[in-house]
Every structure is written in structure tokens, then in C-alpha cells.
Design a protein that fits this description.
The complex is a heterodimer of chains A (346) and B (331).
Chain A: E1 5-20, E2 25-41, E3 45-49, H1 56-63, E4 71-77, E5 82-84, H2 90-99, E6 100-103, H3 117-127, H4 132-145, H5 162-174, E7 180-184, H6 192-209, E8 212-216, H7 220-226, E9 229-234, E10 237-243, H8 244-249, H9 254-261, H10 302-306, E11 312-313, E12 319-320
Parallel strand pairs in A: 3-8, 3-9, 6-7, 7-8
Antiparallel strand pairs in A: 1-2, 1-4, 4-5, 9-10, 10-12, 11-12
Chain B: E1 6-19, E2 22-35, E3 39-43, H1 50-57, E4 65-72, E5 81-82, H2 91-96, E6 101-104, H3 118-129, H4 134-147, H5 153-156, H6 166-178, E7 184-188, H7 196-213, E8 216-221, H8 224-230, E9 233-238, E10 241-247, H9 248-253, H10 258-266, E11 314-316, E12 322-324
Parallel strand pairs in B: 3-8, 3-9, 6-7, 7-8
Antiparallel strand pairs in B: 1-2, 1-4, 4-5, 9-10, 10-12, 11-12
Classes of the chains: A alpha/beta (346), B alpha/beta (331).
Chain lengths: 346, 331
């Protein structure tokens, strides 16, 4: 795949003020997204992972300007022109949203219960001033693409199962044929047996319609399955960015390693691989000095709490934010075993 | 296995709820045994009846129609107690609830009361079941907080739940459940609301406490990875019925019920080729009020057959392995 960037995020920051007291004085800022830079290439899927509070959802919302970014540029290379989403006017945003749409996590709260499916899906078209007749026709066209029959058009969200609702959300995102789709935890609210259907659908749609995805999730096995490249975030910072192979097989940041090691493997004869990271994510209001991960890092040294590391290029597009990325050997099973393995029964 | 003494036996459990729209058979014929010091996993999707099964053991269900037997074997040679026959609000079940059998709920955000400190909430359980003075109870509560890995326990003792993170609140829930050294711990999706690194910590904690206290655990989850990592024995449920039960390694290596097989095929494993289509189960879990007759999985089953409209038989594949399916019965 030739690497043509479709989205370039440069030094994106979003600080939420924290207000206390009667006069609502600002006592500090939560640095939800702090100086994040990455590029998404045409036709690829970029996975964005991290624990709750790491800022991945705020990044998604900044990309669509559902929250106002404080600093940085978000360049969207459209078919005819390039937009800077961070400073685009209302009129330009209308064009931007024709090129980029979002799928939300919870299909139970992201659909208006009073709207019929056809109105839900047609809403982006209405915003683009498409006529009602044309909109209705395009809704009927898109329903089979997401695996729903035409009879779904007149139903209400409460008549649908979780999987069907998420198909409606996907149809709503795709109705304006955007080349870029941001999916924020699209499967985590779904039943196990339905989850794989929706992942298959997203994969299918990507190859059929040549879509580009920014795929946000906390389930690393799913991110690994669907993504070409992966960005790992911790406390508002990007700590590692690389191809799926680089991040999963050759990771260089101790946090990425810890995250990968805490993935539970669905095999009862392999209970020894899990590693337990001590402690919890510190408060984003008052992150540790230096490297934000230094308080939990098993390799932390003096330099780590004194000086914040830069995001550095390790070659082949593999970026790591760690002072000791070259020296650390994370390939070994450096961590203690978690559970004893049961013997095969009988 | 060194000791396979049963501590809890559930026989032919049925829990039905009368609703305006009709009867919901939330649990329809469930049988299993929890052995001393072992972990039983109950796995299934939403509406399969796994939480209702757990709650019916502690008789925590409002106005339901419960039948069958839940035999609890107390220490020594005492006669087993049938929990179903006890008055849900009586003293007998209250003496067992929280003391012999304790439960951890799914949401640490909502299952602690916001108006008491966590210390008071732990002490409530201790003083209910043990004859200890205020000071002794407080010392025990602090030692429990230490045991579940809450740093600086003496200071956190006076914290309110809103001052703690989700992982910490779940640890408090576990401390409350464990402060009377229960013989059975029921954990209902204890890690679903938590991040992966915290999930790993909590599961390790439950596992090590299980070994230290020789406690039995009933782990209820929708996540097959949690089952693979913790359970010794597994019950797979679908829409109130038991699809399959087996020792954990056997279940993962040789699943018999088409539902178990499909579930295991649909999850992403470390060796799943990237970006390939995953196996999936068609359709979605039906509304429990409109569950199909006979085998409830039949309208999604790849091996469906004419016989499936009748109630499927339980087929044994070994001393502890059985599946409820027509597939293995010759015509």
C-alpha cells in the first residue's frame, strides 16, 4: 500500500480546566491529550489503545471537533482540498464531516429512541442539505450493505438488538460515503457472539469501500486483529507508535509490554504468560514528573523522573517515548508468572 | 484431585419471573457442583441466566418463582442445608449470606453506598457476623484492606467510595466479601468494568486468596479468557439453559455443544491470522420472553435438525463432561 497520508495530527493538545470553589476558580488542568502527533495513511486502519483516562476518546473527539482542541493542527487531505480541522470554519466543517464520520461505543445511548432507523441514518444527509426523497432512497441502498433488510427502516431503536443497533450506527456513519471513519470502541458493548459479526462487517466494508479507519479500543486482541498500525497512549501522551508487528512483537516501551502481558489468553493450558503491572494509572490532574510511566515502570531510573523523554524514531516508522528504548530488552519473559497452569484433566 | 468434596450442589434449578408480558424462564434446569477449594466458572452472554443463578444461591431475587435444590454443605458432618427452602428474609439465610457465602458484584461504582466510609462498610459486615469489639473490628478491617492490596490502608479506611478509583473500589468490595473468611465466594463479572492491567491484578488477587483461604469460587463472566485463566470447571449457559459443562481444559480442547464450539471459534486468539474474517454466530441472542421451544439455541445453530424442536437430552462424554444437545443421539 503506498503511504499517502489522509490525516495528519500535529502536536494536538486538549487541556480541560478543573474548577473548584464558589467562584469556579481554575485550579489546574487535566492534560487529556498532550502534544500528540501521528499520521493516518489512506486505506489503513490505525489502532489507538490505552487504559481509561489515557485520552484516546478525547483524541477521537478532537478529530471531529466534537471538543475544541487547544493546540496543534489536524490536517485532513480531502479529495479536492486540505482542511485544518482545528481551525476550520463552520462551513468548512460541513465539508469535513462529509469526509470523516464517527461510530460511537454504546449503541444503546447513541441512537435517539424517538427516531425511526431511517431518520437516524439519514440525519447526516439532512445536515448536508440532501432532499428527503433522495435521502430515503440512499438509506434503503445502504441498509443491505450493513447486513440489515429494508424492513428495518421503519423500526425504532428499542426494537433492535445490540448488534443491529451498531449496524445502524455504522450505516449512519457511512451514508455520506466518507473516506475516513473514526470508530470509538465499536464492539465493546456487544455480546461475544455478535462482536465477531461486527468486526467482520467493518473489515468487509473497509475493503469494499476503500475506507480508512481510526479504531479505538481497549481490547488488544481485537485491535491487533484489525489494525495495520497501532498507537499506544498513556496519560495523554503517545508512548509508542508503529506497525502492528512492531508494537506486538518488537515493542520497545515498558508500558506497551505491560499492557500486552496483561491480555488474558483464552487457553487454559497457558496460564503463565500473564504479567501484572503494579499500581494504577496516576491522576491526570497531577501526572508524575519526567516520564509519566516512571512510577510504575520496573526499569525506572533517576533520569526517568527528572526528565521527560521525547518521542523518538527507532527506524522504520517505529516511534517510542522512553529514555532507554535502545537498551531495554523486553523480549525476555521479564515478569513473574501470574497463575499456575492446571494439568490436563484425567 | 486430592479432595473433591462438594461444598455447594445445585440440582435442577428453575427460576421464573412473572412479568406482564408473560413468564420469563431466566433459569431453566441448571445442575452443577462446586468443589471445596476450586473455582467453578459460569460463562454465557447477556440473558443467559448466569447472574440470576448466582443471586438465587444467596436468595437475593425479588418475587421470583424458584424451584429445585441448592444444597450447601457446612463444615464437618452436618446435614446439608437446602438454601431454596429457607425464607429469603429469615435469620437462617442471613447467617449464611456474607459469612459462609459472600458475593462480589459487577459494578464497584454502584454497589457501595456513597454515604458511609469504606471502613464503616467493611466493619458493618464484620460486626454482623462476628462477636468483635469496635477496635477489634477496625483492626480486622484494616488488615483486610492491606490483604487486598490497598496501599496506605489506615488512611484510606476513612475515605468515601467517591475518593477511590474503580480498581480500588473493587478491592474494597472484595475486602467486604472476604472479611468473614467465607467458604464460597461468588464473583459476578468482577473485572468487566476495569482496565486490562487492573483486571489482571484483581484476578491474581482472587486466585491467591482462594489458595490461601482454601476458598471455593464461583466466577461468573462473559469472557472466555477469564474462564481459561481461572476456572477449574466450567458451565456454559445459553438463555437459561445449561449448554455444556466440563473441566476447563476439556472444554477448550474438545467442546461438544455447537454453541460452545461457535463461541470458542469466534474469539480472537494470539494466533488468529490478522484481518481475516472471524467465525461468527448468525443472529443475536433472542429476547428471553420469546425463547424458542426445545433447544433454545436452535435458530442460530449451524447443526440444527428437526429433532431440536423437542427438549434436548443431556449426553455424557465423561464423568464430568456433558452437553445438552441432540447431535450425539442416534435416531
Amino acid at each position: 500500500m503506498p503511504d499517502t497520508p489522509i490525516l495528519q495530527v500535529e502536536n494536538l493538545s486538549k487541556f480541560f480546566p478543573v474548577q473548584r470553589g464558589l467562584l469556579r476558580r481554575t485550579v489546574g488542568h487535566v492534560k487529556a491529550v498532550n502534544d500528540v502527533t501521528f499520521t493516518v495513511n489512506k486505506g489503513e486502519c490505525l489502532g489507538l489503545v490505552g487504559e481509561s483516562g489515557c485520552g484516546k476518546t478525547t483524541v477521537a473527539r478532537c478529530l471531529l471537533r466534537l471538543v475544541e482542541p487547544d493546540q496543534g493542527r489536524i490536517l485532513l487531505h480531502g479529495e479536492r482540498q486540505t482542511f485544518d480541522i482545528a481551525s476550520a470554519s463552520r462551513k468548512e466543517m460541513l465539508d469535513v464531516r462529509r469526509q470523516m464520520q464517527i461510530i460511537f461505543q454504546d449503541p444503546f445511548s447513541s441512537l435517539d429512541p424517538r427516531w425511526r432507523v431511517t431518520d437516524v441514518i439519514a440525519e447526516p444527509l439532512m445536515a448536508q442539505k440532501v432532499g428527503r426523497g433522495e435521502a430515503g432512497r440512499r438509506v434503503l441502498e445502504i441498509l443491505p450493505t450493513v447486513g440489515l433488510g429494508p424492513h428495518f427502516a421503519d423500526r425504532f431503536p428499542h426494537e433492535l438488538s445490540g448488534g443491529e443497533r451498531q449496524r445502524v450506527s455504522i450505516a449512519r456513519a457511512l451514508i455520506v460515503s466518507p473516506p475516513l471513519v473514526v470508530a470509538d470502541e465499536p464492539v465493546s458493548a456487544l455480546d461475544v457472539s455478535v462482536r465477531s459479526q461486527i468486526i467482520n462487517l467493518l473489515l468487509d466494508l473497509q475493503s469494499q469501500m476503500n475506507l480508512t479507519y481510526v479504531f479505538i479500543a481497549h481490547d488488544l486482541s481485537i485491535v491487533k486483529h484489525i489494525s495495520h498500525r497501532i498507537a499506544v497512549m498513556y496519560l495523554g501522551r503517545l508512548v509508542e507508535l508503529g506497525t502492528t508487528q512492531q508494537v506486538f512483537e518488537e515493542c520497545k516501551h515498558p508500558y506497551t509490554k505491560a499492557l500486552l502481558a496483561s491480555v488474558l489468553i483464552p487457553d487454559p493450558t497457558h496460564r503463565e504468560q500473564s504479567y501484572v503491572l503494579e499500581g494504577e494509572v496516576p491522576s491526570p490532574l497531577n501526572p508524575p514528573s519526567g516520564c509519566h510511566f516512571s512510577t510504575r515502570c520496573p526499569f525506572a531510573q533517576e533520569q526517568c523522573s527528572a526528565e521527560e523523554p521525547e518521542l523518538r524514531d527507532m527506524g522504520d516508522g517505529h516511534w517510542v517515548r522512553c529514555h532507554f528504548a535502545e537498551e531495554l530488552d523486553l523480549s525476555e519473559e521479564i515478569f513473574a508468572p501470574q497463575f499456575d497452569t492446571p494439568t490436563a484433566s484425567n | 484431585m486430592p479432595d473433591s468434596q462438594p461444598i455447594l450442589e445445585v440440582h435442577d434449578l428453575h427460576v421464573h419471573f412473572k412479568m406482564l408480558a408473560g413468564i420469563v424462564r431466566a433459569v431453566d434446569g441448571v445442575d452443577f457442583t462446586v468443589e471445596r477449594g476450586r473455582c467453578l466458572g459460569i460463562v454465557g452472554e447477556s440473558g443467559c441466566g448466569k447472574s440470576v443463578t448466582a443471586r438465587s444461591i444467596l436468595r437475593l431475587l425479588p418475587s421470583s418463582d424458584t424451584s429445585g435444590q441448592i444444597l450447601y454443605h457446612p463444615d464437618g458432618d452436618d446435614e446439608p442445608i437446602d438454601l431454596v427452602s429457607l425464607d429469603a428474609k429469615g435469620d437462617a439465610i442471613r447467617a449464611i449470606r456474607g459469612k459462609d457465602i459472600a458475593m462480589i458484584f459487577q459494578e464497584p461504582m454502584t454497589s457501595l453506598t456513597p454515604v458511609y466510609t469504606i471502613g464503616e462498610q467493611i466493619m458493618e459486615s464484620i460486626r454482623k457476623h462476628q462477636d468483635l469489639s469496635e477496635e477489634e473490628a477496625q483492626a480486622l478491617a484494616i488488615s483486610m484492606l492491606n490483604k487486598v492490596g490497598i496501599p496506605d490502608a489506615e488512611r484510606r479506611f476513612g475515605d468515601y467510595p467517591h475518593q477511590m478509583s474503580g480498581g480500588m473500589r473493587q478491592r474494597v468490595m472484595i475486602a467486604i466479601a472476604l472479611c468473614c473468611e467465607p467458604r464460597v465466594l461468588i464473583a459476578d463479572e468482577p473485572t468487566t468494568a476495569l482496565d486490562v492491567t487492573i483486571q489482571a491484578q484483581i484476578l491474581r488477587l482472587i486466585r491467591s486468596l482462594q489458595q490461601d483461604l482454601d476458598m471455593s469460587v464461583i466466577m461468573i463472566t462473559h469472557d472466555l479468557s477469564v474462564i481459561a485463566q481461572l476456572a477449574d470447571f466450567v458451565v456454559v449457559m445459553y438463555l437459561g439453559q445449561m449448554a455444556e459443562k466440563a473441566p476447563v481444559v476439556e472444554l477448550f480442547q474438545d467442546p461438544k455443544h455447537p454453541y460452545t464450539q461457535a463461541l470458542l471459534r469466534s474469539i480472537v486468539r494470539p494466533d488468529t491470522p490478522p484481518r481475516e474474517q472471524l467465525h461468527s454466530i448468525s443472529g443475536s441472542v433472542p429476547d428471553p420472553r420469546n425463547a424458542p421451544s426445545g433447544c433454545r439455541f436452535r435458530n442460530r445453530c449451524p447443526s440444527v435438525h428437526d429433532r431440536c424442536v423437542e427438549d434436548p437430552p443431556v449426553v455424557e462424554f465423561g464423568p464430568q463432561h456433558s452437553a445438552t444437545c441432540w447431535l450425539y443421539v442416534d435416531e
